[in-house]
């Protein structure tokens, strides 16, 4: 088409454009992400092996480590069981039955994500304490394993619910109809046809649930249940034994690494895509019949436990202490949280762009490795990641220690995986030929990208920044270990006041967190 393009660039072709050189502005941020994730972890390993052989043996093989392992794994398994009991029936009800009010039921299944785990723990403790909302019912005050199990189960089950709901909506009912036509009973159809197709969604949701449990610090500390995360904090903040703290962090990191390997092996070689001709359709809704009332009762109970009790408890204690709210301290906490979360969101979105671009537009083994490293930062438990950054900053860059820049960098690197997803999705939807046409018209690679492709990515970048902003706003363990002197976030305000049973003092901080987190829920509902 010689009349459409200037003759000054006759040698440029589409195939040549696809082999465009990878320039420093593309690889530079990717290398920075890799160094930001791997170098601190390397320093953590070096710190862990500083002791002599006898000391190392005593640290690694002490009986307390076995107790911590049992507590951590036991809590993860228990929370996953609670999440499964809540998420599976709810996902089936809103996708495969004639239930009325499915939008409201779906909303109740997602809203707990707007309530951070430590706020859920605060609500359970505040509701059953003296002067609490539920104290007249004679309910036992949750603590220890039971308290952590309830708080984390109610907070994390939406991760599993969202994955299962999406998978059920995407199932092809013709497979079930074919099985039934061969004389298979409904129970056998569910076991042999439906459940195997839900495995990827179940594994993905379970991975998120367990990773949150392994990395949790706020809930287990408020419930006084000692896991690896809580032990790392105690060892670092009170015992000052940095070598043992480093070993605890490595043990916790090995758990998350083993979990990622297990999830990958379970899904290796499995294919669940529809291969037949024709278009897939939705399944006919199953009549609930006599199970209609129990179904609505189940949804109401889940909504009350996961949303109603926390919100009501926060409002209850806010009303009891409204006259003594320290508005200046609350405003200062909101400002501290915002001045760290906003730059972290912008940095994460900026770093996610080249990482996602390499994976989508320049796929290669190296690009896949870099992307996995970015996800490693998210999979690393927050306390272990923060401790690694402390070791690195004290040894290599002492001026960064306890600085706002280090906290912002930690947020950006840890939550980078949340930012990559929306940008990658936007890149898949942006036609590459638009940018190629701009190159043929004589624009440089960078200008062609910003002129042709970048405008199509703005929504994805905005969603990425919003996810990271809200995650950083709610983050507790990284903030505790890396925050500058005098820094006090909303999350720290909730945790410190609730830890001293000052529920009225914690209420305004919790309410602000819940209200801002509703923005995240809105994004989830819009995009799922």
Task: Produce a short descriptive summary.
By secondary structure, this protein is mainly α.
Can you describe what's shown?
The protein has 528 residues and is an all-alpha fold. Helices cover 76% and strands 0% of the residues. It is built from 23 helices and no strands. It has helices at 14-17, 24-48, 53-60, 63-96, 102-110, 117-128, 144-170, 173-181, 186-215, 218-222, 228-239, 242-267, 292-320, 327-361, 365-379, 382-396, 404-414, 416-429, 432-440, 445-474, 477-482, 490-499, 503-527. Helix 14 (327-361) packs across helix 22 (490-499) and helix 22 crosses helix 23. It is globular, with a radius of gyration of 25 Å.
Question: What are the salient characteristics of this protein?
Answer:
mainly alpha; 528 residues
SSE pattern: HHHHHHHHHHHHHHHHHHHHHHH
What share of residues is helical? Answer: over 70%
Q: Report the count of strand segments.
A: 0
Uncertain regions spanning at least 5 consecutive residues: 1-20, 271-279
Q: Specify the biggest β-sheet.
A: none
Number of helices: 23
Task: Give the overall shape, derived from the CA principal axes.
Answer: globular
Calculate the terminal CA-CA distance, rounded to whole Å: 42 Å
Please state the structural category.
mainly alpha
Q: Hey, roughly how much beta strand do the residues contain?
A: under 5%
Please tell me the overall pLDDT: 81
Using only C-alpha atoms, the radius of gyration works out to 25 Å
């Amino acid at each position: 088409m010689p009349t459409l393009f200037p003759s000054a660039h006759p040698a440029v072709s589409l195939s040549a454009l696809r082999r465009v050189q990878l320039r420093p502005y593309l690889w530079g941020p990717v290398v920075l992400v890799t160094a930001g994730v791997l170098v601190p972890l390397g320093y953590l390993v070096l710190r862990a092996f500083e002791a002599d052989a006898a000391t190392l043996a005593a640290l690694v093989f002490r009986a307390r480590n076995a107790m911590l392992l049992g507590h951590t794994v036991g809590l993860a398994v228990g929370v996953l069981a609670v999440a499964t009991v809540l998420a599976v029936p709810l996902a089936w009800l809103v996708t495969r039955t004639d239930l009325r009010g499915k939008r409201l039921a779906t909303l109740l299944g997602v809203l707990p994500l707007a309530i951070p785990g430590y706020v859920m723990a605060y609500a359970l403790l505040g509701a059953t304490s003296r002067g609490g909302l539920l104290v007249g019912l004679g309910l036992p005050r949750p603590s220890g394993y039971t308290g952590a199990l309830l708080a984390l189960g109610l907070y994390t089950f939406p991760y599993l619910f969202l994955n299962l709901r999406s998978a059920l909506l995407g199932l092809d009912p013709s497979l079930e109809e074919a099985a039934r036509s061969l004389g298979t009973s409904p129970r056998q159809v569910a076991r042999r046809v439906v459940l195997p197709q839900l495995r990827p969604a179940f594994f993905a949701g379970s991975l998120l649930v367990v990773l949150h449990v392994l990395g949790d610090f706020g809930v287990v500390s408020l419930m006084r249940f000692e896991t690896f995360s809580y032990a790392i904090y105690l060892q670092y903040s009170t015992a000052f034994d940095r070598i043992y703290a480093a070993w605890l962090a490595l043990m916790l990191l090995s758990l998350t690494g083993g979990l990622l390997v297990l999830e990958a092996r379970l899904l290796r070689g499995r294919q669940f895509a529809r291969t037949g001709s024709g278009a897939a359709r939705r399944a006919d809704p199953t009549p609930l019949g006599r199970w209609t009332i129990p179904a609505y009762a189940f949804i109401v109970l889940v909504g009350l436990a996961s949303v109603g009790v926390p919100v009501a408890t926060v409002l209850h204690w806010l009303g009891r202490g409204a006259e003594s709210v320290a508005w200046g301290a609350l405003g200062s906490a909101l400002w501290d949280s915002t001045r760290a979360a906003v730059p972290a969101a912008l940095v994460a979105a900026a770093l996610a762009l080249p990482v996602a671009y390499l994976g989508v537009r320049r796929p290669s083994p190296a690009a896949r490795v870099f992307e996995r490293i970015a996800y490693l930062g998210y999979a690393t438990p927050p306390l272990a990641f923060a401790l690694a950054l402390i070791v690195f900053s004290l040894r290599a860059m002492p001026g960064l220690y306890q600085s706002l820049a280090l906290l912002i960098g930690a947020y950006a690197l840890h939550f980078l995986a949340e930012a990559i997803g929306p940008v990658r999705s936007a890149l898949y939807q942006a036609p590459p030929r638009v940018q190629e046409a701009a190159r043929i018209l004589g624009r440089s690679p960078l200008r062609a990208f910003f002129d042709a492709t970048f405008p199509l990515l703005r929504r994805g970048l905005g969603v990425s920044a919003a996810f990271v902003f809200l995650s950083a706003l709610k983050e507790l363990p990284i903030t505790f270990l890396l925050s500058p002197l005098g820094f006090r976030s909303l999350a720290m305000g909730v945790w410190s006041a609730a830890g001293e049973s000052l529920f009225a003092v914690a209420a305004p901080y919790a309410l602000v967190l819940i209200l801002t987190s509703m923005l995240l829920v809105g994004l989830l509902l819009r995009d799922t």
